[in-house]
Amino acid sequence: MVATVEDGTLLSLRPDKDNPASSGFSCQKGIAFADVHNDPDRLTTPMRRTASGEFEPVEWDTAMADIAERVRAIHRMHGSGALGWYFGNPGAFSYSHVLWLLLLSMGFGSRLHLFTAGSQDINSRFVASQLLYGNSATIPVPDIPRTDFLVVIGANPVVSHGSGVTMPRIREHMKAVVKRGGRVLVIDPRKTETAADFEWLGIAPDGDAFLLLSLLQVMFTENLVDRALVAQHARGVAWLEELVRPFTPESTQAQTGVDPGVVRQLARDLAGADHAVVYGRVGTCLGQNGTLTTYLLDVVNLVAGHLGRVGGSMFGSFGIPGERFAMKAVGALLGAVYRRRRSRVGGSPRSSARNLPASWPKKSPRRAGGRSGHCSSARATPCSRCPMATS
C-alpha cells in the first residue's frame, strides 16, 4: 500500500502498482484502513474499567503489569486449564503473532484452552491435511498460471479474490486459462459471480462429497488411473478403490442433481488433461460433510494424477533449512494432539491443537448463588478478533 501523509496525518491509502506481490491490487478493506486509522472512536491507549463502570485511559506499562498480575494469580490458583486465548483471522497473517503466541502458550502450560476462528472457515481443511499428509499445515494450492483445466467447487474467487491462493487479480489469471485454450468450470448450487464469467455446473446443496466419490468411481472403473504412479505417493489405493465402488453417478444423482453422463465426462476430462486441478474453499469446508469433501478434493487430484504436479494442486515451501524435518515433527505433535486430546465439553478433537470456539461459553465458569462451578477458562483473552461482532 502507498500512504499519502500530510503533516503527520494519514490522508489516504492506495494500491502500490510497482509491488511485485500485489501487482497494484488491494481489496476495499485494505483501502478503508485509512478511515479506521483516523476514526475518532479508535482506541490508541489501553482503557481500564473503573468501579463506577466507566473506562479510563492508562499507560501501556501499567496495563501490561495489571493484566500480567491478574493472569499470574489465576494461573497460580487454578493452573493453565483456567486460561483461554482466542485469536482470529488477522493473527494468522502475522509471523510474529504466531511465533509469540506459540511461546506464550508454552509458558502457560499444556492445559491452556486455545480457541481460533478456524471452525468458521478452515478447520475441515486442517483435519483433512492432518489425515492425508500427517500435518494440518500442509495445504496444496492450485497452480492456476500453468493449468489447462480449473474446476472450482464451493468457492467464488472473483469475489473472495482467491481464498488461500494469494494471487492478486485472480480473475485475470482465470481468464488467461481460457485464452490459452483451457477451461474453467465452476460447480456450485448458485450461479455465482465467478460462474457467470465461466462454465457453470449446478449441483444440489451439500452434494459435493457425492460428486467427488462418483468421479473417483468412474476413474477407477474406466481404468483412467495410473495405479502404479498413485501407489508411489500414497498408501491404501486398493482400499480407496473398493470404498468408492458403490458410488456410481446413477446412485448419487439424487444427492447431486447432476446428470450421470456429465459426471462421467468430467471424470474423463480431469484424468485425461495434462494439467488440471480441482480447487475448493469455504463452501466445501462448511457443508455437513466438510471434512470428507475437503479430503476427497485432494484425493481426486491425486488419483487423476495432478497432486504435487505443475499445473495441478501444488505444495509450497518456506525455503528454510530443515523445513522438511520441522514439518514432520510438527505434524507428529499435532497428530498426537488430534488423536488423544478432547475438549472437556462435548469431547470434540482439537484441530491443529485448537479448541472449537463454540465450546468457549460452556467452558467458562458457571455461577450459582454467587459461587463458581467447575473452574475452566476463568479468563479468556480475544486477540485480533471481535467475537461479539463476527460470531
UniProtKB/TrEMBL annotation:
Residues 345-354 have a biased composition (Low complexity). One of its GO terms (molecular function) is 4 iron, 4 sulfur cluster binding. Keywords: 4Fe-4S, Iron, Iron-sulfur, Metal-binding, Oxidoreductase. This is Molybdopterin oxidoreductase family protein. GO terms for cellular component: membrane. The keyword Oxidoreductase applies. Residues 344-391 are annotated as: Disordered. Residues 1-41 form the 4Fe-4S Mo/W bis-MGD-type domain.
